[in-house]
């Protein structure tokens, strides 16, 4: 099979595996001929004076058949091409998706250069061109090429550009997704803008960014099942961290009173539209703060991120739906809202038998010894689905939150909130438990659960308790998934918001 150089067959079907293999061999043969002719198929040191976007910005409104007299040197990937004897046309695409036509005329580049273009250039190749900015007779902004070079020879063909990639291809070969689909490129830019905005908001409030260990001798800071590995150098079992919390609190003990980290967490659990085994997490702690102040900060951060991504508190999701992140967000009591939903008062003192009865009535199966788990599951069943606007769900059961300070006025509850946006949990915050005696008691209870087979229970962490015994000021702490923040801002699933997600 011989591949037509840089041909644009817009209506052709997707090539078969055999056809791709044949095309690859054709391109490998071209590479070999280039090398034999003394041409480098991966040239380096090519000067770039302008981006495609910059040329379009300067000359976007020219009349047809204009020669500007301006010469540029730029590069891009060939995504469309047409050869018509003495004149060749190609469309170059830059990494941001901007496109520009280039034209090669026999009269300008000469016969040898034009023949080499026809022989060697394929769709997908990166090429470097120099030439004058003009408009064609049809008014298309173009570069009339005077010199050109292949900057990187593509050995495999591009997918059909006018067809949607399937989801598996998008997540397994994200580089193709980025070449083909504008939404993929927008998502990467949105994530970068959102994270930059988060850092800017923290800086305005006097927070310092730090990094804490990914490999830990003891997993903690959350209720989750860890990934386990082994260090050959230390001959010891290690865990990929499930949360940075216990190290960030050490930083607060040491006097870094406003601290945050944006980094990766790993949890050996299920994967679905809102969960990934590896994910980006933001955690922050503020000495002399509490969960109310963390709610204020979190709302400000997310609203600032929305403006950075969309220019407004009203974001537009990928499906065209608008979602309003503006205003002051509701703060809803977990126990009070559950009581209203089931028609009877539910408190931390409600007997386990009554909670089980309520669960059985709606066919919720819960195999957990703690009444707080029943409260949370019942709340999710009866209340969660009715939340439309961003909502802070306040004051959780004490027995499901081992790192949280008890509520200052409601016994049996802790000062914790979860933020729900788009129907999923986006962030959580505590008034932190800083009493080392109570913290030890909570760890002991967690150890009992672990001994009973609970794989998510925390272990008793003596190193953390030692730090806490040196005195940690009363503090507020919060955590937010970066991937989920992008879900809230874009309306996409988690695998779309992660650039290179883990796939089976």
Structure description:
It catalyses: tRNA(Lys) + L-lysine + ATP = L-lysyl-tRNA(Lys) + AMP + diphosphate. Keywords: Aminoacyl-tRNA synthetase, ATP-binding, Cytoplasm, Ligase, Magnesium, Metal-binding, Nucleotide-binding, Protein biosynthesis. Its cofactor is Mg(2+). It holds the Pfam family tRNA-synt_2. Homodimer. With 504 residues, this protein is α+β, with helices and mostly antiparallel strands. The chain has 16 helices and 18 strands. The strands form 4 sheets. It has an 8-stranded mixed β-sheet, with helices on both faces. Strand 12 (314-316) and strand 13 (322-324) form a beta hairpin. It is elongated, with a radius of gyration of 29 Å.
Helices and strands in order:
Elements: H1 17-36, H2 52-59, E1 67-84, E2 87-93, E3 99-105, H3 106-109, H4 111-120, E4 126-135, E5 141-152, H5 167-172, H6 174-180, H7 182-204, E6 208-209, E7 215-216, E8 227-231, E9 236-240, H8 245-253, E10 258-266, E11 278-287, H9 291-310, E12 314-316, E13 322-324, E14 330-333, H10 334-342, H11 352-361, H12 371-382, E15 391-397, E16 413-421, E17 424-431, H13 436-451, H14 462-469, E18 475-481, H15 482-490, H16 494-497
Parallel strand pairs: 3-5, 6-10, 14-15
Antiparallel strand pairs: 1-2, 1-4, 2-3, 4-5, 7-9, 8-9, 10-11, 11-18, 12-13, 15-16, 16-17, 17-18
Helix pairs in contact: 6-7, 7-9, 7-15, 10-12, 11-12, 13-14
């Amino acid at each position: 099979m011989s591949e037509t150089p840089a041909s644009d067959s817009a209506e052709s079907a997707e090539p078969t595996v055999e056809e791709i293999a044949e095309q690859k061999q054709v391109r490998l043969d071209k590479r070999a001929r280039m090398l034999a002719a003394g041409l480098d198929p991966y040239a380096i040191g090519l000067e770039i004076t302008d981006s495609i976007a910059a040329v379009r910005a300067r000359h976007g409104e020219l009349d047809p058949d204009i020669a500007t007299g301006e010469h540029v040197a730029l590069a891009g990937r060939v995504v469309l091409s047409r050869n018509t004897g003495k004149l060749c046309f190609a469309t170059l695409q830059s990494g941001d998706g901007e496109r520009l036509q280039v034209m090669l005329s026999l009269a300008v580049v000469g016969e040898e250069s034009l023949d080499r273009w026809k022989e060697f250039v394929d769709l997908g190749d990166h090429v470097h061109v120099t030439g004058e900015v003009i408009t064609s007779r049809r008014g298309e902004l173009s570069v009339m090429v005077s010199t050109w070079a292949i900057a990187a020879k593509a050995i495999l063909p591009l997918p059909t550009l006018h067809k949607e990639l399937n989801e598996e291809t998008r997540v397994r070969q994200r580089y193709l997704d980025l070449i083909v689909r504008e939404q993929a490129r927008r998502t990467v830019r949105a994530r970068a803008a959102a994270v930059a905005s988060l850092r800017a908001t923290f800086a305005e409030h006097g927070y310092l960014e730090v990094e804490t260990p990914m490999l830990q001798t003891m997993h903690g800071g959350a209720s989750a099942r860890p990934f386990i590995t082994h260090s050959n150098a230390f001959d010891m079992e290690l865990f990929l961290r499930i949360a940075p919390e216990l190290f960030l609190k050490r930083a607060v003990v040491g006097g870094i009173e406003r601290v945050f980290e944006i980094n990766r967490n790993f949890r050996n659990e299920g994967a679905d539209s809102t969960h990934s085994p590896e994910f980006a997490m933001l955690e922050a702690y503020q000495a002399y703060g509490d969960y109310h102040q963390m709610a204020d900060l979190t709302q400000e951060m997310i609203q600032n991120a929305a403006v950075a991504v969309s220019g407004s508190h009203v974001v537009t999701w990928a499906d065209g739906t608008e979602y309003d992140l503006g205003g002051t967000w509701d703060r809803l009591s977990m126990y009070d809202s559950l009581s209203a939903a089931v028609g009877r008062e539910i408190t931390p003192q409600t007997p386990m038998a009554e909670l089980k009865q309520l669960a059985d009535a709606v066919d919720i199966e819960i195999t957990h010894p703690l009444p707080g788990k029943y409260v949370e599951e019942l709340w999710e069943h009866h209340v969660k689905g009715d939340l439309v606007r961003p909502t802070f769900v306040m004051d959780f059961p004490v027995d499901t939150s081992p790192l949280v300070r008890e509520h200052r006025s409601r016994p049996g509850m802790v000062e914790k909130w979860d933020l729900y946006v788009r129907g999923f949990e986006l962030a959580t915050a505590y008034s932190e438990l800083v009493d080392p005696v109570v913290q030890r008691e909570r760890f002991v209870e967690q150890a009992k659960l672990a001994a009973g087979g609970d794989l998510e229970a925390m272990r008793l962490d003596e190193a953390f308790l030692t730090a806490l015994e040196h005195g940690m000021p009363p503090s507020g702490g919060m955590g937010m998934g970066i991937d989920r923040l992008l879900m809230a801002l874009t309306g996409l699933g988690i695998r779309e918001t992660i650039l290179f997600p883990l796939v089976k």
